[in-house]
Write a structure and sequence with these properties.
- The protein is built from 8 helices and 5 strands; from the N terminus they run αααααββββααβα.
- The protein is α+β, with helices and mostly antiparallel strands.
- The protein has a single domain, classed as SCP2 sterol-binding domain (Nonspecific Lipid-transfer Protein, Chain A), CATH 3.30.1050.
- It has a 5-stranded mixed β-sheet with strand order 3-2-1-4-5.
- It is globular, with a radius of gyration of 16 Å.
- The N and C termini lie far apart (about 35 Å).
- It comes from Micromonospora eburnea.
- InterPro entries: SCP2_sterol-bd_dom (IPR003033), SCP2_sterol-bd_dom_sf (IPR036527).
- It holds the Pfam family SCP2.
């Protein structure tokens, strides 16, 4: 009888120090190929801050100013499930055809999105359906729901 090979676990082998070298498409594949429980485990550990920092840090470069038109908005992303039970909040400001990100929100949001870390990574990697997540309560949106429906159009989201 042949021994079953150990299943490779990409997310736990993932080194955030090398994250800058991972393309958005490779990241999408990584999220897609990693079981939800392993993503949850990683996102409740020491790597959470680095992963969130890298994901949000890339948003300005993935922003599609040509699709934004006259959109001016402040969006708060609230990622729940921190090891201490807390939430990480990032602020995205879209104005004058540019996108800026901060991990220290200062402005009142036009839209506030709240979700767990697994659903967040699925959304930003193109592997999750935000509308279905909203309908099933996994994603909570407060404020401008029209803006919420249009966010995906404002960024180049990879498809895994």
């Amino acid at each position: 009888m042949l021994a079953r090979p150990e299943r490779c676990n990409p997310m736990t082998d993932f080194d955030p120090a090398n994250f800058a070298n991972v393309s958005p498409k490779e990241f999408a594949q990584l999220v897609k190929s990693t079981p939800d429980d392993k993503i949850a485990e990683v996102m409740s550990g020491d790597m959470r801050g680095k992963i969130l920092g890298e994901v949000f840090g890339r948003m300005p470069s993935l922003f599609r100013a040509d699709r934004a038109g006259s959109t001016n908005a402040v969006i708060h992303w609230n990622i729940t499930g921190r090891a201490d039970g807390g939430t990480d909040t990032y602020e995205i400001v879209i104005e004058n055809g540019a996108c800026a990100v901060s991990d220290a929100p200062e402005r009142d949001p036009k839209l506030s999105l709240t979700m767990g870390p697994v659903d967040f990574l699925k959304i930003v990697s193109g592997g999750g359906n935000p509308v279905m997540m909203f309908m099933t309560g996994k994603l909570k949106a407060k404020g401008d729901l029209g803006l919420a429906a249009n966010i995906a159009n404002l960024f180049d989201i990879p498809k895994a």
